[in-house]
Structures are given as C-alpha cells and as structure tokens.
Structure prediction request, 261 residues.
Amino acid sequence: MSSSPSIYIIGSESTGKTTLAKDVIKHFEKLTLSDPPGFIEEVARIVGMKHGFVGEDLLRSKDRAYKYQRLIIEGQFESEQSELQTRSWFISDRSAIDPIIYAKMHVSSEAADVLVSSARWREMKERMKGSLVIVCEAGVAWGMVNDGFRLMSNHSEWLRTHHVFCDTLNSFGLEYHVLPLQVDSKDARLKFVLDRWEEKRKDLALAIGKHVNPVLAVENDFITMNGALALKHKSSVTANVYETIDLTTAHHASKPANPYL
Prediction:
C-alpha cells in the first residue's frame, strides 16, 4: 500500500487554492506512479450548484449558512470515502475544516461545535493529521471573479479569515504550512507544496523507524485505516499477531491477524 500522505489545499477566498490544487494533481498525473492520487474538487461549489446555495447566503441568513456548511461537511466526507474506494491518497481542494470555520464566522461558535461533534468530522480530522495541509496566505488577489460561490469580501476580511483558519487548525492540533503570499508564481507555489510533501513522507518514514523494532519486524507493509497512514508489521516472536501502528498518533494496537488487511 502507499505511504504517500494526502494533500489538502485550504485558506481564505481568492487565494489561488483551486489553481494550485489542479497544478499539483497535474504534476502527479505526469508521473508513472503505481499508486497515483485521487482528486477532490471543491465540494462547496458542487453543493451550492446542487442545492441552490451561493456565497452570499453566508451573510443573508444564519439558518441557510448553517445548512450550507452542514451539507459541505457531508459532501466532503462522501468525496473522501469515494476516492478511498480506489485510491489510498488524494489531493483535495479545501477540506472538512473549511465549513467549521465558516460556520464559526458566519453563524456562531455553537453551530461550529455541533458540526465538530459528528463522527464523520472526527474521522476526517484524524485523516488530516496524517496528511499535508497547505494554507494559502491571504493578501494576493488570485482570480477575483464573482462566480456566485465565493464571498467578494474586502482585503481586511480575507486577512481575518486567514487568521481564523490558522487559529482553528492550531486548536485541533493539526499541523499545517502557510504558503506565503510572496510566493506568487505558479511554478514556485507548486514547488513549495511538493517540497513540503517530500518532507511529510520523510517524517512518516522516521516515525516508522522510531516505533518499529527492526529485529522483531520481519514482515512489514503499509496500510490505510480510514484513509490515515499506518504500518502493519508481523512479529517474529508471535507469528499470529500483527501490530498496527497509527502513524498519525504513533499509538500501538496489537490484534489478531486479519487476512483482509
């Protein structure tokens, strides 16, 4: 199975997220990979078209704003599950944390708390812990076109949204990298993501080295548990027991061998 971490491209409106996400998937599509990534398009746009929501609904009605974000959470979960049926990792334009942030900003903190209490959100949060999260810094006007699905906010509001993104990620203990606004060429932005992705892969390899005894681990394999990267190894001492190490938390959980893993 693949040891490649998924990639989430997130951040405030009009920060070039979709352009960057498409550039990243195009890069990987050009490579000959035995385990290529899937791609998740911006779910908010798909949900909006399907259910008749627009970006301005965040400002017009708290009730509609909440319903919109709840549907986005559901849509993101379904999209991730769909990709993981055939792939072990993916590139996602936005993430499950986006609707939490917009619910907090445009509805209430209590509404955001309701969304994060769902089992689906908790599963996606754990998946993000083992992934690369890129936050595009606000401040550069990338594609400022009113397409009906983005908020045409002012510069100060975009900056506020950026800070809420960072604060919220910190509050959930999710590691992320801010793509500085000074990195403004497409090639440089792509390189920034790919460099951090390689670093993430190395971090996972180091986690394996720290938590697997090379003397005992005579049979190793990467697996995915709900989309999060884990390592399965078979102990030479107890031949009928596999030890699964969740690399997102580095916790151990020994269990009888499962032939379907």
In short: Residues 212-229, 231-261 have pLDDT under 50 and may be disordered.
